[in-house]
Amino acid sequence: MKKRNKNMTSFAEHLDSQYGKRGTKTRERYEEEFEAFKLGVMLQELRKEQGLTQEQLAEKCGTTKTYISRIENNASDIRLSTLMRIIREGLGGHLTLNVNV
Question: Is 78 in contact with 71 (CB distance < 8 Å)?
Fold first, then answer.
């Protein structure tokens, strides 16, 4: 068994100290923003894998390059219907959601 350095903290401990425990307002806001960030990164990676520019993706799914950019850079909330359209029409995929309670 590996000994733990007393000066080191786990990422979970770091989050608890910086944003509070799960369920607190500050921590839940952090978690929501992190999920939005992950979504933007995922869309950007999928777009690039398919060799599409933001403008090409926007044209395929009926939105604007600016909107795609805002999603990828975590500067915009996205409606579920829009996300589904981007994935289906723009990227040729299918959206599956999981809910953790």
Answer: yes
pLDDT by residue, tens only, the chain of 101 residues: 666 677 888 998 999 999 999 999 999 999 988 988 999 999 999 999 999 999 999 999 999 999 999 999 987 788 899 999 999 999 999 999 888 88
Q: Which amino acid is at 72?
A: E
| Alpha-carbon torsion, ordered 25, 30, 36, 38, to 10 deg | -150
Sequence ranges of the domains in the chain: 12-90
| CA 71 to chain centroid | 9
CATH number listed for the domain at residues 12-90: 1.10.260.40
